[in-house]
Amino acid sequence: MTTPYEIHQGTSPIILGFPHTGTEVPPEIAGRLNDNGRILADTDWHIHQLYDGLLDSVTTVRATFHRYVIDANRDPAGVSLYPGQNTTGLVPETDFDGKPIWKDGQAPDEADVAARLRDFHAPYHAALAAEIERVRGLHGVAILYDCHSIRSHIPFLFEGKLPDFNIGTDMGKTCDGAIEQATLTVVEAAEGYDSVLNGRFKGGWTTRHYGRPETGVHAIQMELAQSTHLQTETPPFAYDSAKADRLRAHLKNILVRLEQIAPGLKR
Fold first, then answer.
1. Which CA distances in Å does 138 have to 8, 29, 135?
2. Distance (Å, whole) CA 219 – CA 104
């Protein structure tokens, strides 16, 4: 089995998390996916490429496994992030359109979930937690910026079109207000894009679990509409360099600003 995560260690106070860009599915699990599941449609396509090189000496932690194996951004206890709303679980049974992804009779059972927690979810988060501690040790503060994307239209999950920039801080609980405001300032000034703070996506389990401003660890989630950087939001989900380069300028601005304000967040 390959390592379920990749790490690049840097010296910046910023850590980029990538829980959903992985596309690796072990053969014994891939064989249980149906034709729809094997498309891996709910991948955060090319997001690690989108952020690559934007900030010198940034730390990155990326899950290499696909979210259909187990979702690295879900509560390991299986508690819903959005009670009462459509969503997908710790080990999804459907895709984001509510369509089954497993062959009949092949959906994961409790033993499967326990094994995947042990082999994938827990190692990824152990690696991420260790990097947060290392960076906080260097600076007295660490800012986890969790990187995500999703199709701009998914009626099963939300009405209408998703804004381009979706900032999640669990209603301001997961980071100092200066981080939230700096990010919001950049996206609101980004010409041709729309944005929302704590809209449909308020931050996943990663952001809510690690974001403890009183301890010097701050977390913020950025969910990007895939229309901002893909040629199409359908297979083959190809990267659009022209769109991406335009978007990358704003993402770089966010990360640079967060790095600049980090020293003032020390407690």
1. 16, 40, 5
2. 39
| Cβ atoms of 220 and 184 closer than 8 Å | no
Give how far Cα 50 sits from Cα of 1, 203, 222, Å: 27, 20, 13
pTM of the model: 0.95
Evaluate the omega torsion of the peptide bond into residue 123 and state whether it is cis, within 30 degrees of 0: no
Whole-number Å distance between alpha carbons of 116 and 26? 11
Average pLDDT over residues 124-142: 98
Question: How many other C-beta atoms can be found within 10 angstroms of the C-beta atom of residue 101?
Answer: 23
Distance CA 223, CA 56 (A): 22
Beta-carbon count within 10 A of 169 CB: 26
Pairing label, strands 14-18, 142-150: parallel
What's the number of domains the chain is made of?
1
Question: Which domain does 184 fall in, by range?
Answer: 5-264
Those residues with Cβ within 8 angstroms of residue 224's Cβ, 6 or more apart along the chain or in another chain: 47, 50, 148, 149, 150, 164, 165, 166, 247
CATH of residue 160: 3.40.630.40
Residue 267 in tokens: 């407690």
Nearest to 81, CA basis, from 219, 210, 206: 206
pLDDT in tens, 143-165: 999 999 999 999 878 888 999 99
